[in-house]
Design a protein that fits this description.
This protein is of the alpha+beta class. The protein is built from nine helices and 13 strands.
Length: 371
Amino acid sequence: MTTGFGRMLRKEDQRFVRGQGTYVDDVHLRGMLHGAVLRSPHPHARILSVDTVAAEAHPKVKAVITGETLNERDLAWMPTLAGDTQAVLATDKVRFQGQEVAFVVAEDHYSARDALELIDVEYEPLPAVADARRALDDGAPLVRDDHPGRTGNHIFDWESGDAERTDRVFRDAEVTVSQDMLYPRVHPAPLETCGIVADFNRVSGKLTVWATSQAPHAHRTLYAMVAGLPEHKIRVISPDIGGGFGNKVPIYPGYLCAIVGSGHGARRPRRVQRRRAADQVPGRVLRRVHGLLRPGGGALPGDRGVHQQGAGRGGLLLLVPHHRGGLPGRADGRRARLRARPGPGRTAHAQPAPPRAVPVHLPDRLGLRLR
């Protein structure tokens, strides 16, 4: 709607002034965990070691993710919107003060923050440079030594238009003026800080993200590039944003850590409980379970048929019959009736198959969720 002067009126003010806005902080999922980032106090330092044992022992901590953890999964580096790359979590060294070093996933925000104090990082401080002009001097500390062959801190040259014609205009001009201009650091300060909630469904393979993003489609593309998921399986929801001014366009490392944490820490499998008997699983549940198992995977440890799958905060012990995919078969290879029960008068092929170990591929073991 516009006025007589062509000015567009705001339509969202009414619900905002009534406190009816919906922000990322208003998103609460069942069993949702919380993350916190450990940042470097040094502007330039080599990482000698990262000790996470004490943090992992915290009773409410579900996972501690480091650069080494991500490097093993080829997730330690991510592309940027400026055509460069940056570390998700530092691996070899930190290159600016406040760089992300570790990520904690815990049951609540306060426990995650407390666990950061339990991570012991040993740094070897390196010479730093704070002046952009001094960074171009010969012998200045090399910041981005992760690029092979780079010998200086010059990042890139940016140009647009017709270079030859522009040079001709300046060459033919009666008077020309040249000036070196330093573009200082700027920082927008919106009322709402950056935030993200990530939910990865291992059964459907779909990722849903609620993020304070001014560029949700760009975020979806980058998440697909880093995580290896097709874009049609990634949904990025940008609710109300409490100010942006451009700083909510980029993809920050914490966003990737939250996505990794949603699959790494929230539903990791727990140890087999040997002291309790396996729960009997109804046939209708087994039918859904067998549809999720991948044929030809690795056998369960120790050739045991009893194992536990993590499902949020709870778990379910399964006693799974041996088969090669699909439903448990009969002795003659035909499909067995789910209601078949052992008893007198039944022929051998009508008896249900005895429970044995099932080959289960590791990703399927990690990803199995029962509702």
